[in-house]
Amino acid sequence: MSFVFGDGLRQEITDNLRRFEHREVQDSDLRHAAVALVVVRNPGADDACVLLTLRPRHLNRHSGQFALPGGRLDAGETPQQGALRELHEELGLELKPQDVLGRLDDYPTRSGFCITPVVMWAGEGAALRPAPDEVAEVFHIPLRELDNPEIPLLTPSEDGETQVLSAILPSLQHRIFAPTAALLYQFREVAGRGASTRVDCYDQPPFAWR
């Protein structure tokens, strides 16, 4: 996998996602949401990153947690439309449908959502204007950092029947957990390595169930 931001990396990710047969979850009991996995240039460098946010403490759901930009779909929206809208609302970054490179698997969460990850490419000079009521902080996570062989970390869940997936990211100086960690891991495997890795079998820690 290349880590240099440029046309070569964009084509590599696009080709890998085109070959990947993503899974869709059909469950009327789940609320559908979409998140944006946005590849951007690392500010002041030539390497590629993905954007990650920290949610403010005042939010009712998943407050104070690390998350990809995204949220619940509006009536009649496709996952692509919802991810593009949420990205603009949360980070002020307006991308177009042609900036979408592909999708990963739907991920059902313990909090009652079905998350569709949409992979996007932001061009040169992508300016971010985070909405303070939705984003406490924005982080650029280098793709090289995601390539760490110690990702993922797997620990037994509370029921003892599944494993909780997490990852330690130096850029955050923090450990993040599924679902966000699971989506980043699948992005690395599928978009970066051309694998067909599935992650919906991995659980989330209890604090992420709310």
Largest sheet: 8 strands, mixed
Mean pLDDT: 92
Q: Rg, please?
A: 16 Å
Query: What number of structural domains do the residues give?
Result: 1
Which CATH top level class fits?
Alpha Beta
Enumerate the spans where pLDDT stays under 50 for 5 or more consecutive residues.
none
Return the CATH architecture.
Alpha-Beta Complex
CATH homologous superfamily caption: Nucleoside Triphosphate Pyrophosphohydrolase
Mind explaining what this structure looks like?
With 210 residues, this protein is of the alpha+beta class. The protein has one domain (7-209): Nucleoside Triphosphate Pyrophosphohydrolase. 20% of the residues lie in helices and 28% in strands. It contains four helices and eleven strands. It has helices at residues 7-19, 79-91, 143-146, 180-192; strands at 31-41, 48-54, 66-67, 70-72, 100-103, 107-108, 113-121, 137-142, 153-156, 163-169, 174-177. The strands form two sheets. Strands 1, 2, 3, 4, 5, 6, 7 and 8 form an eight-stranded mixed sheet that branches. A hairpin with a 4-residue loop joins strand 10 (163-169) and strand 11 (174-177).
